[in-house]
Amino acid sequence: MRPTFVALALALALVHSQGSALAQSASKTARGTVTAMSADSVTVKVATVDMTFTVDSKTNVIAAGGSTKERAAQAAGAPGPKLADVIKVGQPVSVRYRDVGTTHHASSITAVSSAGSDPAATKTSNGTVDAVSATSMTISGSTGPAKFNQTFTIDNDTKVVGKGASTATKGAKVVITDLVGKGDQVSVSYRMSGTALRASEVRVTTKAAK
User: Fold this and answer.
1) Are the C-beta atoms of residues 29 and 62 closer than 8 Å to each other?
2) Fewest Cβ atoms nearer than 10 Å: which of 3, 106, 111, 167?
3) What is the spatial distance between Cα 154 and Cα 117, in angstroms, rounded to a whole number?
4) Strands, DSSP E only, in 117-195?
5) Which CATH superfamily is domain 123-206 in?
6) Which of 87, 107, 96, 80 is nearest to 35 (CA)?
7) Distance (Å, whole) CA 47 – CA 31
8) How far apart are CA 34 and CA 89, in angstroms?
9) Quick one: DSSP state of residue 168?
10) pLDDT per residue as tens digits for the range 132-180
11) Where along the chain do its domains lie?
């Protein structure tokens, strides 16, 4: 059967202040596998992180067989199917949500064929340093005809390898700005941490001409 939108008729309703926050916050998407459900929430394992989303009567579900379950619920006098009638634990889903205070409210839950690639996996970008500080670094580069800019979070666990590193790291503690400067060519290994790109290693391949 074709996927269809199903409005979940659940008991929980958001208070007016939460509704206002929903209208103001930006929509986000998370993809993973359902690990737990209740009448008003669903927990999804996104990479290595468990994210819990609140659901209510405004939450839409896109799943095969949804229209059949909706008709069955209406025939039984219910306003709509329960979440567990449409989505199951262990099922890959894509959740569109908004942050409401400290909670994540699911505006839609879509059943998908797989949980997708692991966003926590290490990735690599090569480019030119546009700006660098003790806590962040921005590089620019190109992938084929497309140009890009990326900003990475730098912390105490970020390893810096490259020209000048062997001498600069002797003695007193150094920060990335002691080793990396604007215009340097770098290769950055990083992981997704929420919506941030966390640099695990910065390798200087070519120092900028002075």
Assistant:
1) no
2) 167
3) 24
4) 123-132, 136-143, 146-153, 159-162, 185-193
5) Copper binding periplasmic protein CusF (2.40.50.320)
6) 87
7) 8
8) 5
9) H
10) 999 999 999 887 677 889 999 999 889 998 765 544 444 446 789 989 9
11) 4-111, 123-206
**Amino acid in position 104:** H
The answer, as to whether pTM is greater than 0.90, is no
What φ, ψ does residue 113 adopt, rounded to 5°? -75, -25
**Would the CA dihedral through 70, 73, 79, 83 be positive or negative?**
negative
Secondary structure of residue 129 in the 3-state scheme = strand
SS3 assignment for 33-96: EEEEEECCEEEEEECCEEEEEECCCCCEEEECCHHHHHHHHHHCCCCCCCHHHHCCCCCEEEEE
Q: Which of 94, 106, 99, 109 is nearest to 46 (CA)?
A: 94
39 within 8 A of 8, measured Cβ to Cβ: no
